[in-house]
Amino acid sequence: MPLNGLDRPVLMIGCGTMAGAILARWLETGLDPARVTVVDPGRSAPPAQGVSLLSALPAALPPRAVIMLGIKPQSLPDVAPLLSPLLANGQIIISILAGVTVAGLRAALGEKTDIVRIMPNTPVALGKGVCALYADAHTDAGLVDEAQRLLAPLGLVERIGAEAQFNLITALTGCGPAFVFRFIDALAHAATTLGLDADQAARLAMATVEGASALAVQAGEPPAILADKVASKGGMTREGLDVLDEGGRFFALLTEMMRAARDRGEELERLASAG
Ligand SMILES: NC(=O)C1=CN([C@@H]2O[C@H](COP(=O)(O)OP(=O)(O)OC[C@H]3O[C@@H](n4cnc5c(N)ncnc54)[C@H](O)[C@@H]3O)[C@@H](O)[C@H]2O)C=CC1
Ligand SMILES: O=C(O)[C@@H]1CCC=N1
């Protein structure tokens, strides 16, 4: 049974951390590895058994291929001139490149290209990712629906109406796992600083974040209320929350963090359109 009824060949151009996580989930949920070709000069072995690995683009591409761009935005100027002459109607380009707009991709790959821009995150490997999806009116609507079905096993897929929000959404969901990982690390580090064994602190911090996230997902109440429910009147939690909340500094810090990430996306966008 093909993945989500989709029987197209899949070509992944660049298959590192992020595209590799997507491919792992697709293979786990039924994609036949024989239909997948990875083009990646940086790999010495295919990412999974049965997947073909090429170090450069082949002379021709299958007419109905799903072509995922999994390279860094900075590699697009190297890849686009080689890829563009191989493209034909009926193929779907799915780009995961941060800070490269659909217009920027069309300028590099050809005006008639059907392009779906997505922003995944690494938890897609577990089917618990977030995948923002944007396509403009020039991309065939049927192909966009097909791409959305293909992405469904990755987790929450959300269509974005305004591409202008893509960098902000990237800061939240694409970068978000790194921010959460840093938070887990900081929790453990704080406990270690105050005297707990480092391994024990890491283990307990991880389990606490896992349990709290799972509870938050199914609680039916906003996280702010859940936090208040943990904080007994006159108890310990409130003292800790008060440190985070003083003068709104925790929210301010995270806003600054997200602004910096978003602004880098806008910078990448400017660099891509200049070059
Ligand atoms: N890492 C993450 O959590 C996320 C990354 N992204 C996006 O995913 C893209 C890739 O990022 P990562 O996977 O983190 O980087 P990565 O460095 O792990 O993967 C990039 C891959 O592209 C390959 N590559 C380099 N030049 C190439 C060429 N000329 N042709 C074919 N392949 C080539 C490299 O060998 C490498 O395997 C970026 O555009 C990034 O914005 C998006 C969301 C999350
Ligand atoms: O750091 C980056 O630029 C990419 C985009 C989102 C996550 N990683």
UniProtKB/TrEMBL annotation:
<dbReference type="Pfam" id="PF03807">
    <property type="entry name" value="F420_oxidored"/>
</dbReference>
<feature type="binding site">
    <location>
        <begin position="13"/>
        <end position="18"/>
    </location>
    <ligand>
        <name>NADP(+)</name>
    </ligand>
</feature>
<keyword id="KW-0963">Cytoplasm</keyword>
<dbReference type="GO" id="GO:0055129">
    <property type="term" value="P:L-proline biosynthetic process"/>
</dbReference>
<feature type="domain" description="Pyrroline-5-carboxylate reductase catalytic N-terminal">
    <location>
        <begin position="12"/>
        <end position="99"/>
    </location>
</feature>
<dbReference type="GO" id="GO:0005737">
    <property type="term" value="C:cytoplasm"/>
</dbReference>
<dbReference type="Pfam" id="PF14748">
    <property type="entry name" value="P5CR_dimer"/>
</dbReference>
<keyword id="KW-0521">NADP</keyword>
<keyword id="KW-0641">Proline biosynthesis</keyword>
<dbReference type="InterPro" id="IPR036291">
    <property type="entry name" value="NAD(P)-bd_dom_sf"/>
</dbReference>
<dbReference type="InterPro" id="IPR000304">
    <property type="entry name" value="Pyrroline-COOH_reductase"/>
</dbReference>
<comment type="pathway">
    <text>Amino-acid biosynthesis; L-proline biosynthesis; L-proline from L-glutamate 5-semialdehyde: step 1/1.</text>
</comment>
<keyword id="KW-0560">Oxidoreductase</keyword>
<comment type="function">
    <text>Catalyzes the reduction of 1-pyrroline-5-carboxylate (PCA) to L-proline.</text>
</comment>
<protein>
    <recommendedName>
        <fullName>Pyrroline-5-carboxylate reductase</fullName>
        <ecNumber>1.5.1.2</ecNumber>
    </recommendedName>
</protein>
<keyword id="KW-0028">Amino-acid biosynthesis</keyword>
<feature type="domain" description="Pyrroline-5-carboxylate reductase dimerisation">
    <location>
        <begin position="163"/>
        <end position="268"/>
    </location>
</feature>
<dbReference type="InterPro" id="IPR029036">
    <property type="entry name" value="P5CR_dimer"/>
</dbReference>
<dbReference type="GO" id="GO:0004735">
    <property type="term" value="F:pyrroline-5-carboxylate reductase activity"/>
</dbReference>
<comment type="similarity">
    <text>Belongs to the pyrroline-5-carboxylate reductase family.</text>
</comment>
<dbReference type="InterPro" id="IPR028939">
    <property type="entry name" value="P5C_Rdtase_cat_N"/>
</dbReference>
<dbReference type="InterPro" id="IPR053790">
    <property type="entry name" value="P5CR-like_CS"/>
</dbReference>
<dbReference type="InterPro" id="IPR008927">
    <property type="entry name" value="6-PGluconate_DH-like_C_sf"/>
</dbReference>
